[in-house]
Amino acid sequence: MRSPACPDCTGSGRLDIRVSIFGRNVARRAGAAGLAAAVGCAVAAAVIGQGAAVASPVASTVSSAGTVGAAAQATQFWSGTDSNYIKIPGPAPFREPAIGGSYGGYVGMIGNWSSWQKCGTKYVWSVNNSNDARTNFVTYHKGIGVADYWFMGGPGVDPHYNGTTAEATAWGAAQAARVLSDISTQSPKPNYPVVFMDVELPGDAPSYTPAPDNGWNSVYTSACSGKVRINGVPASLDRADFNGFADYLTSHSSYKAGVYSAPGIWQSIFGTGSPSVITNTYEWTYTGDTSSLAHHPSSWCLSGTKTCADFFGGITTGSKYALMWQWTGGGGTYNGYGDLDQIDGSRTP
Fold first, then answer.
1. How many other CB atoms sit within 10 Å of the CB of residue 221?
2. How deeply is 50 buried, as exposed, middle or buried, from its count of CB atoms within 10 A (0-12, 13-18, 19+)?
3. How far apart are CA 243 and CA 251, in angstroms?
4. How far is CA 133 from CA 66, 106, 128, 268, 311, in A?
5. What's the Cα-to-Cα distance from 94 to each of 80, 108, 131, 298, rounded to whole Å?
6. Contact residues for 52 (Cβ-Cβ < 8 A; gap 6+)
7. Distance (Å, rounded) from C-alpha 79 to C-alpha 327?
8. Which residues, listed in sequence order, are joined to residue 343 by a DSSP beta bridge?
9. In whole angstroms, what is the distance from residue 299 CA to residue 291 CA?
10. 195 Cβ contact list (under 8 Å, min separation 6)
């Protein structure tokens, strides 16, 4: 965890708070298999022009509405940020910090399971960054606008845990219901049609969660106790929780279900069997990430290197469900600015 960087207090009364994306710190300490793995790929030099999107070497086609045209076969990549406040260069149309190009989107934490259960004190939302991303999308037809993610609790922090898949499913659905309730009061609403579950192992992050594993791998005496009652949670229960959220979200709204995680973290929670396979769920990954800004993303790889995004649960970079890559920032890859993301705009559902 790092102290707040450039906190942004607005007239709304919300405070932007610097937060690491927790999972990578735990993964490095635990040496989780697969987190450092990255597939080699041929990469052309990135082209980052003044006021232009960060694009792949393939030509991109975008409609006047700021979304990818139905007939477009090319790929449009945007650069964005998430979570903590970062000063976005202006005036409008705004530019991506640190690396240049158009500012292509913002993803913020709409809520945190532990805050909902009244034992966490923080969530991370930048009013300024979300406003800048929305302005670029609505006024200048650049990027994907604003998206939400929910800091997800596993079965082990369910106040009604009883070891059944039915209860784990209900716990996931209850979290999705809370998200939709929060979105109903969110103004303006997110532009992006995917809501992401943040599925990770946060480690020592007591102001965000009392449970070092968010209840994915241990059962606690109560949601807020931080005291383990049972070591181990079956992967089938973890998946029932996940499915409960996704099914409730999609059956009670027009939003699509997505997940933020990484290969090693995903495997440590869901294993390698059928509960780990999510070939029809939208993904946002953070491996292979880097603390260096010397090489900018070109498509799903860092230009001039063999470091590429690594998705999970059966999804590859070629899948239509591979949406975003947090390629640098936060935690063990903090770069001096904050979290920077590569977003495939042509795959927006």
1. 11
2. exposed
3. 12
4. 12, 6, 9, 34, 25
5. 11, 18, 10, 20
6. 101, 102
7. 10
8. 78, 324
9. 18
10. 110, 147, 148, 149, 150, 179, 183, 249, 255, 256, 257, 258
Q: Which residue has the tokens 């932007």?
A: 16
The tokens for 57 are 């070497």
Largest CA distance in the chain: 56
Which residues touch 121 (CB under 8 Å, ≥6 apart)?
115, 207
Instruction: Show the tokens assigned to 35.
Output: 């987190």
Q: CA 234 to CA 276: how far, in whole Å?
A: 12
- Residue 24 and residue 49 in contact, taking contact as beta carbons nearer than 8 Å: no
Amino acid at 121: T
Q: CATH for 23-347, among 3.40.50.150, 3.20.20.80, 3.20.20.70, 3.40.50.1390? A: 3.20.20.80
Can you read off the two tokens belonging to residue 243? 């499915």
d(CA 57, CA 71): 19
pLDDT by residue, tens only, the chain of 349 residues: 222 222 233 333 333 333 333 444 333 333 333 333 333 333 333 333 323 333 333 223 333 233 333 323 356 999 999 999 999 999 999 999 999 999 999 999 999 999 999 998 888 999 999 999 999 999 999 999 999 999 999 999 999 999 999 999 999 999 999 999 999 999 999 999 999 999 999 888 888 899 999 999 999 999 999 999 999 999 999 999 999 999 999 999 999 999 999 999 999 999 999 999 998 999 999 999 999 999 999 999 999 999 999 999 999 999 999 999 999 997 679 999 999 999 999 999 9
Are 154 and 137 a contacting pair, CB within 8 Å? no
